[in-house]
Amino acid sequence: MNETKYREAEQHLWASVGLEPSEQYVALPRIGVKLRVQEVGEGEPVLFIHGGPNSGSTWAPLIEHFDGFRCLMVDRPGTGLSEPYPVTRENHRAFGDVFIGDVLDGLSIESAHVVASSFGGMLALRSAAAEPQYVRRMVQMAAPAFAPGSSTPPFMRAIGVGPIRRLINTLPPNARANHSILRQIGHGASLDAGTIPQGFFDWYLALQRYTDTMKNDGAMISHFVSLRGFDPADNIPDEVFAGVAAPTLFLWGSDDGFGGEDVARHVTSRMPNAELVMLPDSGHLPWLDDPASVARRSLKWVAASDAELTSRERSV
Questions:
Q1: Residue-range domains of the chain with CATH
Q2: Do the beta carbons of residue 149 and residue 139 sit within 8 Å?
Q3: Going by DSSP bridges, is the β-strand pair 135-141/248-253 parallel, antiparallel, or unpaired?
Q4: Which one-letter DSSP state was computed for residue 173?
Q5: What is the pLDDT of residues 18-61, one digit of tens each?
Q6: What's the DSSP call for residue 236?
Q7: In the prediction, which pLDDT does 316 show?
Q8: Collapsing DSSP states into helix, strand and coil, what is residue 247?
Q9: d(CA 201, CA 9)
Q10: CA neighbor of 234 nearest in space, from 77, 122, 86, 97
């Protein structure tokens, strides 16, 4: 861990989008760790929960365009500058059930809109089903972790094998490997077009080099993945999807390496109040491909009146 060097890269990323977040450390009352939360803007609160291996600053390209709201970007436990917490197959369901509530209680916020991705998407769905009073409206970015029918990209399978994971952790992170991972999860079109900003790549290398994110999230991922991929026994059950009352918009990249439109429609068909928008030429982290458009769609969803959200003519 080299917090100073990590913060330098992180500050450069935020500066590149014209923002300077404040930060605080929040004690999670039930989970029992301290979580770092960065904050930008004013208005109704929106909680951003990232996937893995990643951290809260991954949202910077999106937050640049996310005007009119109090944006709260968490570093999940064990990522970025948050304290670690050992998420396993045995405890991840209970962890997910209380995660949003714990964060908002720590922030003294009664409820918030939620924007979530990948493993963060799974946490958000579980929290919204278990403790619906905390979640107003939700935007899910592409495939949540453990979506039924989803695929497992090769790099994720490798992390699931102990000796390979330990070897990866001994090698210096490099840009070529990160580009390969982004292609595997569906961002080839943006890489070829050169539209993902260099500041994002520089920050992500710093996250890998100077924090314990890769070690901690790698250990977590290893509980769920083998060379065969994710174990279907860990899939989000239908009763969790059915229990999400919060109006939920899925912005799903058509090239998502974890699952395409068939997986997306399977997921949304099991939710009582979900809308699906498929995004062409977009991957697992769709805000990297077109941050302005993804922000516009997300803002329209969280800012809409209840009457607008019950209309079938939403044009998101």
A1: 3-308 (3.40.50.1820)
A2: no
A3: parallel
A4: P
A5: 999 999 999 999 999 999 999 999 999 999 999 999 999 999 99
A6: P
A7: 54
A8: coil
A9: 10
A10: 122
DSSP 28: -
Structure tokens at 119: 């493993």
Distances (CA, A) of 110 to 10, 82, 196, 197, 267: 29, 22, 35, 35, 28
CB-based contacts of 15, cutoff 8 Å, min separation 6:
none
> Pick from 134, 87, 90, 86: which is nearest to 110 by CA?
134
**Quick one: angle between helices 175-184 and 198-210, nearest 10?**
110
Q: In whole angstroms, how far apart are CA 223 and each of 87, 98, 119, 159, 220?
A: 8, 20, 13, 10, 6
Pairing of strands 229-230, 248-253: unpaired
As a whole number, mean pLDDT of residues 187-216 equals: 96
> 214 near 184, Cβ under 8 Å?
no
pLDDT digits (tens, 9 = 90+) for 115-137: 999 999 999 999 999 999 999 99
Best CA proximity match to 230, nearest among 144, 295, 306: 144
- 71, 194, 54, 36: CA torsion to nearest 10: -30
> What's the rounded Cα separation, in Å, for the pair 224 and 157?
10
- Answer positive or negative: Cα dihedral of 137, 10, 291, 262: negative
Terminal-to-terminal C-alpha distance of the chain: 42
Q: Which two tokens stand for residue 1?
A: 């861990």
Q: What is the pTM of this model?
A: 0.95
Cα 30 to Cα 41, 48, 73, 267: the distances in Å are 28, 20, 20, 29
SS3 call for 209: helix
Q: How many Å separate Cα 94 from the centre of its chain? A: 18
* Amino acid sitting at position 299: L
Token code pair at residue 306 = 């209840």
